[in-house]
């Protein structure tokens, strides 16, 4: 019984959640700005026109009826149906007799007839031109607020790096890279600059960011925190300098203190490791390798002694066994040390034996 109640409660919650989400999505669709809603509807209309005119060659009246049937069926939203009811008479008028006089259906419906939009680079109830219209709106360094709609105040929303009422100045973190009567180009200050700068590079900084120091000849120079007397990192880390900062990275696990990455950069070896050829290696692994090495050569010695014993009994059998032992030793050495040059190793051993 308890399980049934829990299942019923979960079902009710899921249904209510679905209804709330559906209502939320519908509310968003039905509350588009008037201009955006009109332009979206005209796009739907154009898509429906393309589908219908590709399939039928009937008269315009019959085509329009098919278009209206197709339009909101394809989009299936309430806003489309509302706009269809609002715009249908004027759309039909345009479709049947207004194309030649008004070739742009969006302009005819959204701008001229229902006055919910403005031409591009115009704004407000009266569709006033934006500042600098047509070729220098906001000095080509920003966007006109409300452009293309009946909203907005025509002010400039400047691009990054520009400021001023008409985007005709550089912001604090940028400098004038180029300027003439018609054009202004602002470039970003060097990353070492804090605030204002007058030109490119660290020499253009008025003030340096933390992590940099001012040099009268070279401008803002990076401070190498890793070279400071007091280590910025813990004993089990090493320091990596970056522009204006530094990073602390963990030493290799074989190190008890290090100056860089890897077991060859250890200052001291961690417990369980020992120095070999200036590198910290696992001491347990080294002992295992030594044991394998001694075991292998004792095996070789035993095989050779056995061959000598057999030699006293039967020279032919000893010869066969000797060849097999030789092959075994050769293969064993190659597989156990595949990266070593055996000839060079043998030569080194002979030289060491003769103390040359």
UniProtKB/TrEMBL annotation:
The keyword Thylakoid does not apply. Keywords: Disulfide bond, EGF-like domain, Signal. Gene3D superfamilies: Laminin. Disulfide bonds join 158-167. InterPro entries: EGF, EGF-like_Ca-bd_dom, EGF_Ca-bd_CS, Furin_repeat, Growth_fac_rcpt_cys_sf, LE_dom. One of its GO terms (molecular function) is calcium ion binding. GO terms for biological process: animal organ development; system development. Residues 126-168 form the EGF-like domain. CDD domains: FU. Residues 1-22 form the signal peptide. It comes from the Eukaryota. Belongs to the CRELD family. This is EGF-like domain-containing protein. It comes from Acanthoscelides obtectus (Bean weevil).
């Amino acid at each position: 019984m308890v399980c049934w109640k829990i299942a019923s409660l979960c079902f009710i919650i899921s249904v209510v959640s679905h209804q709330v989400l559906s209502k939320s999505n519908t509310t968003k669709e039905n509350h588009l700005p008037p201009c955006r809603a009109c332009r979206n509807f005209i796009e739907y209309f154009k898509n429906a026109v393309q589908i219908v005119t590709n399939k039928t060659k009937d008269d315009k009246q019959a085509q329009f009826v098919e278009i209206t049937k197709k339009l909101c069926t394809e989009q299936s939203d309430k806003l489309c149906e509302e706009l269809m009811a609002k715009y249908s008479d004027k759309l039909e008028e345009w479709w049947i007799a207004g194309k030649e006089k008004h070739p742009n259906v969006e302009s005819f419906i959204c701008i001229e007839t229902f006055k919910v939009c403005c031409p591009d680079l115009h704004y407000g109830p009266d569709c006033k031109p934006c500042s600098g219209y047509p070729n220098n709106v906001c000095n080509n360094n920003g966007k006109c607020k409300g452009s293309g709609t009946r909203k907005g105040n025509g002010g400039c929303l400047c691009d990054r790096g520009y400021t001023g009422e008409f985007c005709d100045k550089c912001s604090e973190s940028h400098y004038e890279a180029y300027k003439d009567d018609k054009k202004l180009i602002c470039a970003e200050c060097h990353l070492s600059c804090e605030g204002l700068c007058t030109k490119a590079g660290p020499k253009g900084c008025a003030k340096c960011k933390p992590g940099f120091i001012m040099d009268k000849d070279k401008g803002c120079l990076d401070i190498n925190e890793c070279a400071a007397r007091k280590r910025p990192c813990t004993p089990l880390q090493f320091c990596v300098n970056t522009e204006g900062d530094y990073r602390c990275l963990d030493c290799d696990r074989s190190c008890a203190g290090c100056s860089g990455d890897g077991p060859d950069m250890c200052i001291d070896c961690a417990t369980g490791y020992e120095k070999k050829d200036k590198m910290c290696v696992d001491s347990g692994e080294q002992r295992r390798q030594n044991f394998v090495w001694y075991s292998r050569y004792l095996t070789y010695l035993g095989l050779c002694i056995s061959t000598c014993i057999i030699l006293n009994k039967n020279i032919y059998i000893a010869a066969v066994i000797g060849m097999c032992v030789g092959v075994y030793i050769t293969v064993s050495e190659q597989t156990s040390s595949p990266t070593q040059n055996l000839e060079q190793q043998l030569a080194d051993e002979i030289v060491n034996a003769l103390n040359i």
